[in-house]
Amino acid sequence: MSSSLIPANPSAVMVIRDVTPNVVTLSVPFLRFGKIPVGGRGTIVRLTSGALAVFSPVALTPEVKAKVESLGGNVQYLIAPDMEHHIFISDWAKAYPAAKLIGPDGLPEKRKGMTDEKIGKEEFAVVYKADTKRQTSVSAEFDADFEVEYVDGHANKEIVLFYKPEGVLIEADLMFNLPPTEQYSRVPEAERPKPGLLAKFFSSAQTVEGKGQKRLLWHAISRGNRLSFNESVQRIDKWDIKTIVPCHGDVIEKNAKGVFDLRHSEALWQALSHSATQPQRRLLNHYTSQDPNPQPPPPIPNNTSTRPFTLAVKDNIATTSPSPSPSPSLPTTCASPFLKTYHSPIEATIVTQLRSRGAVVIGKTNLDEFGMGSHSTHSAFGAVSHNGRSAGGSSGGSAVAVATGEVDLALGTDTGGSVRLPAAYTGVVGFKPSYGMVSRFGVVPYANSLDTVAFLATTVKRVEEVVVGTEEEGVGVWVEGDKRDPTCLSGRSRRRLAKMREGYGGTGKKGEWGLEGLVFGLPVEYNIFELDARIRAAWVAAAEALVRCGARVVPVSLPTTRQALAAYYVIAPAEASSNLAKYDGVRYGTRISGQSDAAAGGVLYAASRDAGFGEEVKRRILLGSYTLSSAAMDNYFLRAQAVRRLVRRDFDRVFRLGNPLVDDDEGRQQFDLSDLDEAVPMRDKLGPEEVDFLVCPTAPTTAPRLERVLGDEGDGEGDVVDAYVNDVFTVPASLAGLPAVSLPVGVVGEDGKGKDVAGLQVIGQYWDDARLLGVAGRLEEVLSARGTG
């Protein structure tokens, strides 16, 4: 920047405005490259002590001096916010010699080497440096009123201030809000620059609308040190921002926090780098918010069985603050920039049920945005990691909270394996109940016909205590219906189903579970070529352990498994495209600043949705919208629903128990045997072997390295197809609405040394959840005793 870029008549064109009672802006016209109108702005802040701080000083005109005097005249701090915004600091230093000069590392040396007559050689009292920025102090009065973030990863090495008393973020080039309407408001119309092609292009990258500035911030401005830049943005994002005062463009006075989140969503997504040098920092990224003062639930009259336990809640499940807790309610963000500050007025039924049983909610856990993903990397809060590997998705944050021992139990949602896959990757237990057993009221929907509230814990027993209940712990949540959720079975239906399960351990009371005499099926279609040999060996070892315990193990065939994954990725996105239509910046979600209600509906919605949704969510919305279109519905959506019925029928044919939701004759129709593998025994081809449970891998591989998942650009787009294929073993049970539990098993490390962790899945018939958990608990003990788990 040089003096040739300064307006020749600053007194005539400057706009002096009180933005808040203690924050005054000094706005002037300014041409970048001598052609592009971007405007310039200085800011005066009156501290609580009465001292004045001047950020990015502009021309010291008589009008500015008068304004300074009206504020008390006690200028104590002059801040050059970066390597460019310092031209007038010498004029201010001469006028107010008591003021401390503050700037970034390298600026004093740069000024001493400049020949511009306006640039003095003053000494800086405070210089922010990358290695000491957290310890740098200006003064007691300054530190009391300001949060300071030195964004050393910014190309210009920027100092950002946050004036805490009034919630004002003051920045130079951290973000822009063009066009500079206020800064050119006093320039005569005839003298205003006419925007050419270059100006239009430049301005499009510096408006808060669209994607231009988002890309500029990510690819250009953060190029100095992207990891450090991302961490700085994450720290700034924690401030309670009400107003943003940029140097270039208009002041943002409405929805400032939302605008900041949307413009910096790329940095927030990757705020915790996938660099292997930061494992502990990544590990802490499994929460989106935590309660600083978690309160135990109030005592329940006549209830002697309730004992407190810690609970983490996936951040697509609504929570409120329990009375009389002094803490505010935790936001329900779905890990989306669209909902970063959303606080739900209602609490999910399952959270209320668990609070009544002693749950103390510790925090909300990170996830793939709106539950759409297999690695918990598509999040506005950054990727979740477990020991440098993928934590699975979309409930990766909940799984890590359990795996690290921070909570006794965690809630997740399982749509196509979103609890079981993270359980397998992190070495914990993940249980998906029968569809309709647990209320979905208060759960932000992804795919209504598939979403299921699910549970993660270190042992099956902990899950069983909550879901089924024991004489010591009281009645489990399985007995409670919810009229607010039409997909949740009524109390009458629950009692009828429980009676049908009598004799099979389905009464809700824990029996003496044993494995002897049970029949376990091994689906031959799950023995795919891509299955990791170590997991295949663990599967075989588990089958051998079952036989030693007196169970029978037989191969069974589920022919439609091959089509299940494709059907899922038609049905789930189709339902998601409908569910997410309400996020438009009007009904729900953050609206792009500057858009008015009078704007054309499509334009308003498109801008907000484009900025508010991440790439994976957009991908699934587009896919779902297409499959629901008149041109594609018959060929895709309706056929996927037909495949779903065939998947359910496959399960019904192999289970000894009938499906209470299906007519017996329909469930027992003969297979189409033409495509069965030759390895299937003849007796099974003549009529499927009836089994009590199915045992299979949870995922075809162990947890991949996070670097591979994130890809070369660190954007979570490593291999989308691979991520989808991870659900191949979990999707069938979800399509059929069946209960399934993932158990951890130990396998040999990738290099043949040490140990790794994988998951084995046990699947039961519909509403056989109680017996499934009991048998899974016994199998867990057997595998642990034999060193398989």
Automatic annotation (TrEMBL):
Q: Which residues form a coiled coil?
A: none
InterPro entries from the UniProt entry: Amidase, Amidase_CS, Amidase_dom, AS_sf, DUF4336, GatA, RibonucZ/Hydroxyglut_hydro
Cite the residue spans of the region called Disordered.
Answer: 286-307
Q: Does the keyword Protein biosynthesis apply?
A: yes
Q: Where is the Amidase domain?
A: 312-773
Q: Which UniProt keywords apply?
A: ATP-binding, Ligase, Mitochondrion, Nucleotide-binding, Protein biosynthesis
Q: Which residues does the entry assign to the active site, renumbered to this chain?
A: K314 (charge relay system), S394 (charge relay system), S418 (acyl-ester intermediate)
What is the top-level taxon of the source organism?
Eukaryota
Which Gene Ontology cellular-component terms appear in the entry? glutamyl-tRNA(Gln) amidotransferase complex; mitochondrion
Asked if the record carries the keyword Protein biosynthesis, the reply is: yes
Give the EC number(s) under which this enzyme is classified.
Answer: 6.3.5.7
Q: What does this protein do?
A: Allows the formation of correctly charged Gln-tRNA(Gln) through the transamidation of misacylated Glu-tRNA(Gln) in the mitochondria. The reaction takes place in the presence of glutamine and ATP through an activated gamma-phospho-Glu-tRNA(Gln).
* PANTHER family in alphabetical order: GLUTAMYL-TRNA(GLN) AMIDOTRANSFERASE SUBUNIT A, MITOCHONDRIAL, TRANSAMIDASE
- Give the UniProt family note: Belongs to the amidase family. GatA subfamily.
Subunit structure, per the record?
Subunit of the heterotrimeric GatCAB amidotransferase (AdT) complex, composed of A, B and C subunits.
Q: What is this protein called?
A: Glutamyl-tRNA(Gln) amidotransferase subunit A, mitochondrial
User: Which organism does this record belong to?
Assistant: Echria macrotheca
Upper classification of the organism: Eukaryota, Fungi, Dikarya, Ascomycota, Pezizomycotina
